[in-house]
Structures are given as C-alpha cells and as structure tokens.
Write a structure and sequence with these properties.
Helix content is about 5%, strand content about 40%. With about 425 residues, the chain is mainly beta.
Amino acid sequence: MPRLDTMNYRLVVLLILVMLGLFACGSDEQAGVALQPAGQYPAVTPTVAVTETPAMPSPTPAAAGTAAPRFALSGRLLVLKGGQFLLYDLATDTITTLPTPRAYSPAALSADARLGAFVTFPDFAVFDVASGETRVVHNPGSMPTGLTLSPDGNWLATLTGTITVGLRLISTSDGTLYNVASSSQHPIAWAWTTDSRLAWWWSDAVTPAPQVFDPVTGQSVPLSEVSAEIAAPPEAALSPDGRRAVIVPVASGPSEPETCFDSYVGLLDVPFATAQGMQMSSETIWTEPGLVASSPQWLDDDTLLFVKLGVGTCGQVSATGLSRQVMALELAGGTPRAVAGPLGNADDPNDRVQQFGRQVTHLYSPSPDDAYVAWIGGGVEQGETLLNVTELASGRTVTLLRFARADAQDMADFIENYLLRQVAWLP
C-alpha cells in the first residue's frame, strides 16, 4: 500500500481522532508487534486465602516544567521514544540517540542486555545496546507476531503470519534463517532451553510434547530424547537465582463465561520441562476476586513484581478501583502492595503487545540494586508522556523525562515521535 504524504497522513489521523477518539494505524508498516504466544499454563493450586489488595498511597511526582528533586541514580536506561531508541546515562544525566532504524515494537533483550531485537517492519533488527550498531534481518514471512532472543543472544525466534503461523529461528551473527514449524490449526508456544536451544510445542495439546530444533540437521527432536531442560514456560519470569519461575496469566475473556477465571500469581520450581515431562501445576501464592493482572518481574529472589491491570468480571476491567499499578509481593507471605503507577499508554494505538497480549512488562523496570522502579506514565488522552522513577523505600517519585502534546506539531507527530513506549534498566 503506498504511503500518504506527511501532511495528508496527519490530516487523516486527526480526522480519525475526532471521529473515534482513538488513533488508528492506516499503514501496514505500522503493524509490527512483539507478542509472546500464550503457552499452556499450569493448573491453579490455591494455597492462600483470598483477600483484597489495599490502595497505594499517592506519590508526589515532580511538577511539569520544574527541576525534579533527583535521586543519586546510576546506570543506564534503554528508552523507546516514538520509534527511536535512546540510551539514558543516569549518572551524567545525558541522553544518546542510538542509530537504529525505526522500531515498531519494544526491544527484546538478551539475558545480559548486551543485544536487543525489535520489529522494523516488515523486517527484524538486532542491535548492540551500547553502540546501536544494527543488523537488519529479512523477514520472508508476513505479519510478525512474536519475538524473543535466546539467553546467550545468538538466536532470534519469531512467529510470523496470522492464518498460517510460522515459527522461525534466525542467527543474530549472520542472519541465517531456519523454518522450525508452521500451522494454520494449532497455536505454537516456544521457550528457550537452558543452553539456548529453541524448544516448541502445540500449546492447545492436552499434554504438550516439547521438541527441540537442531539447526545442523534442520529437524526437531522430542525433548524426551535430548539432553536439554526448559527453565520456564512462555511469559514466565525466572528468579535471579534461577531456582523458581513465576507466571501471572491474564484473566479469561468474556466469550465463555462458564470458563472464566481470575488472574493469579503462580510459582513453579525450575526446570519447567525435562525429558521426564512438563510441570502441569503451580503453587498459587496470590489471587483476589476479579483480579486482572499480568507482566511479572522479580525485584529480588524473595520479592515479586507484577502489574494489577484492575478488577472486573471475566478479565474485563471495571472503570473504578486500583488499576495499572506495579505491585510488590513478598514470597514469605502478606498482601501485595502498590509501589508504582498507574502505568501509562493504555491507549497507545501502536502497542500491539498490550492490545492483544495485555502484557506491559516493557512499561516498567526495576533497578539492578532493587532500590527503584522506572516506569512510563501518561498517554495519548492525557496529552503527555512521562518517564518516572519511584524509590521503593520511601514511595517518592520523580519525573526524569516529560514530553507534551504541545512539544509536537500535532497529535499524529506526538504519537509517532514523542510517546515513550519502553523503559529497561540495564545491568
């Protein structure tokens, strides 16, 4: 589809905003996404009483247009502003624009955060986080619908297609591409083995049977026949010590009310799958009536973070109550407490990760020393986008970056080039 010239494009966008109150992408070039497919989650094994989550005390962010009271911060943040990646040095308060092509998805990072990968529609890009040096990898398929990097950063796995979905493995060193599996009838789930091999399975199977792909032979071999382990299932977060994993499945949708369930925080021992089979149950350490949540991360080995999207029925969040808050939950017991938020960008028209997967991990990131959480606030409706940092001990929040609708030429320019779409605190 040919692109509209810039002026006409913005006029069309503004017309849509007036008519619908939403921005809609009219070009296929803005359809790149980075969703992790839903895997077969372990069954719930409740172990705690159901109680309500207390409300979070309101932090006091820095006032817009004034110098923020600053923490003694160190390290670097990777920030996606519009479609451009920035490197924010917190010690010197300097920002470097990385010379990457335009991003149409958040970056997936390797375990050491040395490399990142993203959709630069219709292709993929792998970049050095420190320098921005980028390799563009051709996408021979159609719509990208999934993207992850292996723990060692040597491989990129991606799903493409909508009707017929294909799983592909790409070498980040030379761009060599391997077709791993495809199907028009069964959803594909995948995860990395502990030694950075790609494992996959049909996620709608009653008893999933993972297979491990071998690039040398071009064939997949059952996990039961190879010496490999899968540490954690899709969309799970592995603890820093590698001994446990946590899942927070999004509550079920309204299409089948009789099968509705609330979100829960489920804990699994590691590894998740071996030659002896997969874990099909988890220990539920928290849930509450109507909970809708997702996006787990670990603060430390004993503290979990997840996002409470809100409360509602069958996964549909009600208009009232605590929502889009980053929650901290101690494994030793107790009630989750809100530590940051509310997260922004609920109305970001280009964020397919949360539109279709309801995942918002890319919108918040704990510091390596476990003392702070960086998070993105604001959004299209608010007419401003914010990069905030909250000190966990005090609950105090400061704003490091703020861009407003007035900074842009028009609303289309604000959405395309100013909206903050990802933050990752680098080790």
